[in-house]
Amino acid sequence: MLGTQTYIKTMPNIAYVETLTVNNNITDSAPAGSSIHAGGRYRNGVINIDENNMTRFTIGHAAQEAGKSVGIVSTARITHATPASVYASVPQRDMEDEIAVQLLEFAPEVALGGGIRHFLPRDNGGRRDDGRDLVAEFVEAGYTFVRTGSEFNALDLANTERLLGLFTGSHMAYEIDRVQQELDEPSLAEMTAAALEMLSRNENGFFLSVEGARIDHASHANDAVGVLHDQLAFEEAVRVALEYQAANPDTLVIVTADHECGGLILGRDNIFSVNIGHLEQYTCSIEYAMSQIGRNPDNAEAILAECGWQFTDADQAMLEMFAPDTAPGATGFMAFDAAEGYVSNWLQYVMSHSQSAGAQIGWSSWTHTAGPVFAFSSGPGSEMLVGNIHLEDIALAMAEAMGVTFPEPVSCNCELPVVEY
Amino acid sequence: MSRKGVVFVVLALLLIVSGVQAYDQPAAGKARSVILLISDGMGPNHQYLAEM
Lengths: 421, 52
Known about the structure:
- The structure holds 2 protein chains of 2 kinds.
- By secondary structure, chain A is α/β, with parallel strands linked by helices.
- Chain A contains 16 helices and 15 strands.
- A 5-stranded parallel β-sheet of chain A has the order 5-6-4-3-7, sandwiched between helices. In chain A, strands 8-13-1-14 form a 4-stranded mixed β-sheet, sandwiched between helices.
- In chain A, helix 1 packs parallel to helix 3 (81-87), helix 1 packs parallel to helix 16 and helix 9 (214-220) runs antiparallel to helix 10 (224-247).
- Chain B has one domain.
- Chain B is elongated, with a radius of gyration of 23 Å.
């Protein structure tokens, strides 16, 4: 029922947060993450390089200069835009091989997430063209490296000085798939708890950035079930953070978002209610179901049924209306490109429609929107994060609260790209 | 006004001013640590969804 108490809602200070970039009213994660971690405003696609071609240093750098430890946790590739904005500066967010090198140079005490492909050369299962094995270089630099949830669970954290965990080639799994398929990956909350155990040993304190990344990805796919389960997993990470704060009251905890995605609305058509219970029947993310169908298209109907989809007559008509020559088999659906961008084919579109219509949930977009987000906070300094603010104010408040100073910007010696979105 | 009265008024003013300053004072350096949690893509309705 709407109004159930969540951990986020227990936090006393709330700000209404604008997410505008320097020149666009819809941000991507690169300038948004940069604003959150370094202050200032940036253009889409750019991480921590401002309009004067100056590299801006982040709250992570400021914390390091003050003798604090730094941790980065994400369910995305650890080189993806949001986690990268803690430690990297690049003119284009897709320079993830370079970003991985910058992670090594930044040397955080803890880095946990996905994306090992940007740390290994092509002849060793990665995508790096320079032949470098960054995992080996991290180990040489004193890091303990873990590749699976099992290895992660076996860690002796009390005797681990620096930790790198890269659990997947690309992003980590959606939470519903991690649980249902019993994948060997840690949860966001488990990674957060491990990071806190390690970082809290520094008597000077620490900065920890935790990203629940796949809420965004599920929203791009208009996958309400994916959103729901990853949002609940994020809530668990918030619980871990607040429990740490309860035992360590000199900790500022901030919960926010970098932007809205999908234009998600609870309610649709001409109905005065939502039916979230409809989502309980699903056991897979849309991405997982699509990957299974992709491997075995002749078995599409069984896979859909196993994952919980029960197409109504209207859903079936929608499928056949746009792919009439493929009915009743599903093979042809996979070849029918009905929409561009984040929707790979018409079947995926109908899967999203069926799921969301059943739950009476609406979507306005397959990507980010200009809608505002909130920042919830508690602890020392949280009183600065109230009222109407911009993402960049979060960086300034964190620095003020910890009494640290951002290092002076330096020229990036680079050209900023012309971004078309 | 007597000397005691003047002292009383001055002390009262000092108390008020210091109180206002203390209220306005940001918590500079009071947080030893910061935990920042970002739910990428979370608008208000994503959050409400998790409350249902």
